[in-house]
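Write out the bound-state structure for iron/sulfur cluster.
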Amino acid sequence: MDPLSWHARKAVRARTPLPGDAPAPERANTIEILLERLRQAGINGDFESRTLYTRRLPPGCRSCLAGRGTNLLVTGLCTRDCFFCFNHKPRVDETVVHGIPISDPSEAPEIVERFGLRSVGLSGGEPLLRPERVLAILRALKAMPRPPRVDLYTNGDRADDLTLLELRRAGLDAIRFDLAARGYDLEPVRRAHWIFEEVAVEIPVIPEHKKQLERMVLELDAMGVPFLNIHELFLCAENRDRVVSDGQVPLKVDSPHLLWRPTAESGVAALELLLFALAHTRSLSVYYCSCGTQEVIASRGLARQRTRPSGS
Ligand code: SF4
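---
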């Protein structure tokens, strides 16, 4: 799965009313209670945008939060077909940097330089369906005079040991696994943890998976994995039929987020998971990158582009 900065442009189209939209004062009350419990338990971050984390922010998220990160879609092709997937359909084997299609990996550094970007998330689809392309892009970025930080987002299906070692040698800073795409199977995380200092899991919070998520939090903590990033499950034009068919109910009038359509229960489940992590982990840091966080990131990125002198 790719970083949510990619979602921001597409989620705007998800505002059309959907069956099941309804105000839910009780839910708003539950959220306020959970936020107060998190405050008392010492959560870090910004309550207004619901950008919350239990211990520390992943290094790759800092530039992104400052509006200086971007998504680099390596390919739209994937090994999976998740019901919550927000990628364009039909899937296309194209490479897109900061929203700009490229025909050769060597074109990526100029775009990163032109927009003053400091971190790049390589994503898809499943980027490791095109390992040579990933490595060529990574080497081109790391050869820049001021190389950006580079994270790779993968579902883990093609993350064999040899590929992981090649990525590390080519300078990849961190690898993030979407385990919701593979039934929370930790096997690729376990192997990557031997090779990379920084390994993360990044998932949408599917409320019905609460028990699996709690088990995963405990296992990640026991393994010494440093980061778990969670997002709300949300609707956009590409996934809403399947997300609604799955029984999820989209927020409407009680959503504070104008550009986003998180599902009704996912935000509650995300806050509950943060509370669980605060109470039960020793080193794992859980970061809730909410729909509100994405709006902040998008507005900071736009503001930066407006004030950035051309050519700087
Ligand atoms: S792993 Fe699932 S969510 Fe990620 S790109 Fe593939 S189908 Fe979409």
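---
The domain at 5-302 is CATH 3.20.20 (TIM Barrel).
The first strand starts at residue 44 and ends at 46.
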